Amino acid sequence: MKKILVLLLLSVFVDKVCTQTQVIAHRGFWKTEGATQNCIAAMQKADSAKCYGSELDVWLSKDNVLFVNHDPFYKGVSMENDKSSAIKKLKLANGEKLPTLKEYLSEARKLNVRLIIELKKHSSAKRETRAVEEIIGLIKKYNLEERVEYISFSLHATKEFIRLASPSTPVYYLNGNLSPKELKEIGCTGPDYNLSVLKKNPGWIKESHELGMKVNVWTVNKEADMRWAIDQGIDFITTDEPLLLHRILKGGN
Ligand code: MG
């Protein structure tokens, strides 16, 4: 009887540890001194804060150099239609230069945090395929294949990551318009959807899990929403407030 009770408690514990929601810092942990969105320091701070992952946004310049930035333009320079020589001159708000993906990865190698790499939607499928090929090539070169996950709003880019990345690399789709069954059919790891999409379709979380997929939700910054997502058994929460989420997951009030 005692043995059964111990085994039961152990299985509950294992289940709890294995299924605990993981923290992904949105554009790195940037809401802290010395950091800004998508800078190298924000990734380092996400690593120091023991986040599961640090998300970043990637563009391919006109001359095929990958850069880490969210918006299509920064200080009037186009991430997609200008040359790397112009983008490389740009400075971020914290004084860092706007990083190439190469520079970003060479620092990532020294850390443990996983990289959640978002390829932004580009002007053509051809450019997106080229960007996917360049990203996967760099990830292999820096020996980071076991530490990356790919995400995109573009269905074409998502399918290209699924086609070209190592089969063990997770690929999530961001756009919110495909059901779990449709995602499963294209070989996706699962939905990485906006909070409002999952609140509208709460059944999609259970359905994804039943199909053997994982669920990520963005961008969850309010405590009540974090608690809702945790209660739903969501696997990953992408947030601008990683410390708050860590506190909630540790059972703090
Ligand atoms: Mg992003």
Search tags:
253 residues; TIM Barrel; eight-stranded parallel beta barrel; 11 helices; binds magnesium ion
CATH architecture: Alpha-Beta Barrel
CATH class (first level) name = Alpha Beta
What is the rounded distance between the termini?
A: 36 Å
CATH topology: TIM Barrel
Account of the protein in words:
With 253 residues, the protein is of the alpha/beta class. It has eleven helices and eleven strands. The strands form two sheets. It has an eight-stranded parallel barrel with strand order 1-2-6-7-8-9-10-11, surrounded by five helices. Helix 5 runs parallel beside helix 6 and helix 10 (223-231) crosses helix 11 (242-249). The radius of gyration is 19 Å and the shape is globular. The model has no long low-confidence stretch (mean pLDDT 95).
SSE topology sketch:
Elements (H helix, E strand, L loop, with lengths): L1 H17 L3 E4 L14 H9 L4 E8 L5 E3 L4 E2 L2 E2 L5 H4 L13 H8 L5 E6 L5 H17 L6 E5 L2 H10 L6 E3 L6 H6 L4 E5 H6 L2 H8 L5 E3 L4 H9 L4 E4 L2 H8 L4
Bound molecules: magnesium ion.
Magnesium ion binds next to strand 2.
Care to give the gist of this entry?
The chain has 253 residues and is α/β, with parallel strands linked by helices.
